Amino acid sequence: MAYLQPDKPEKVYLPAIRTAKESGKKLVCLTAYDYPTARIVDEAGVDMILVGDSIGNVIHGYGNTIPVTLDEIITALIAVKRGTERAMVIADMPYGTYHVSEDESVRNALRLMKYGGAEAVKLEGGRNRVKLVRRLVDEEIPVIAHIGLTPQSVYKLGGYRVQGRTAEAAKRLIEDAKLLEEAGAFAIVLELVPREVAEIITKDLEISTIGIGAGAECDIQVLVLHDLVGMTFGRQPRFVRQYSSVRDVMTAAIQNWSNDVKNGVYPNEKESYGLTEETKKELEIS
Ligand code: KIV
């Protein structure tokens, strides 16, 4: 029997993440929620693409991630997979899809893999998720954990604040990270965590840390694509460095087109289709 090998040889799977940690090579991860952005991100050489539940804030304008559904993630995931050749594609498990029972969580994670094409899933929580992570890993589902600021707990936390600032809270985060590693997670997102705490966790663990607002010591950095390219509204958190303003570029393009239409210079002859001289004669038009 010959094994099918449809992927590019340099396609990023778990071993590449492990090797990068061992050799100290930094990796990058960005979010994407549709085909064109996935293609751009993948072709730019980004190693991991997260179909994050930030789709709720960035694409659907919900204000937080709580309302995001499994179907919304799966629809986005299918498009992202079509646009991705090299990067590892990770799916967020939305709020409510891994909270009821272990069996239901496994079923939902399997849906992300079977119907969406996810190559790994990500879920939020610390020691309270250890048993679930172990079960998912036992079912051959690669898992990324997520601690620190966990946006699905926004109502419990009362806002989006840096986590692990006291010695007690920092120790708890360090312990949680270790427990999640022992449970079989292959990487762990550290969101809005003091850089010193992220550094301790990164040095402590054999698995990779993925930092967002957690300083430079993390093995992998992740950002929401729309924050990076300037396609968001309102004040940005201090860890966001905006590398371009796609929103301004789009606004200018739309205004220029609109003005051209109103001034009668779009579309011009080359941008429309004409009849042949013969047909014009038949129709008696000049
Ligand atoms: O949903 C998301 O985009 C995330 C990242 C911020 C890590 O969880």
Q: Summarize the main sheet.
A: 8 strands, parallel, barrel
The ligands bound in this entry are: 3-methyl-2-oxobutanoic acid
User: What portion of the residues fall into strands of 2 or more residues?
Assistant: 5-15%
Number of helices: 12
Tell me the CATH topology of the largest domain. Answer: TIM Barrel
Between the first and last Cα atoms, what is the distance in angstroms? 69 Å
Instruction: Output the helix-strand order.
Output: HEHEHHEHEHEHHEHEEHHH
- Radius of gyration over C-alpha positions, nearest whole angstrom: 23 Å
Helix content: 40-55%
Q: What's the number of structural domains? A: 2
Let me know the CATH homologous superfamily of the largest domain: Phosphoenolpyruvate-binding domains
CATH structural architecture of the largest domain: Alpha-Beta Barrel
Q: State mean pLDDT (0 to 100 scale).
A: 96
Q: If strands are numbered along the chain, what order do they take across the biggest sheet? A: 1-2-3-4-5-6-7-8
Structure commentary:
The protein has 286 residues and is α/β, with parallel strands linked by helices. The chain has two domains: 14-233, Phosphoenolpyruvate-binding domains (TIM Barrel, Alpha-Beta Barrel); 249-282, no CATH class. It is 41% helix and 14% strand. It contains twelve helices and eight strands. It has helices at 14-23, 35-43, 55-58, 70-82, 102-114, 130-138, 154-157, 167-183, 195-204, 225-229, 246-262, 277-283, and strands spanning 27-31, 48-51, 88-92, 120-124, 143-148, 187-191, 208-212, 220-223. The protein has an eight-stranded parallel β-barrel with strand order 1-2-3-4-5-6-7-8, surrounded by seven helices. Helix 2 packs across helix 4 (70-82), helix 6 packs parallel to helix 8 and helix 8 (167-183) runs parallel beside helix 9. The longest helix is centred in the middle third of the chain and has 17 residues, at 167-183. The radius of gyration is 23 Å and the shape is elongated. It starts with 13 loop residues before the first helix and ends with a helix. Bound molecules: 3-methyl-2-oxobutanoic acid (KIV). The site of 3-methyl-2-oxobutanoic acid (KIV) has 11 residues, from strand 6. The site of 3-methyl-2-oxobutanoic acid has 11 residues, from strand 6.
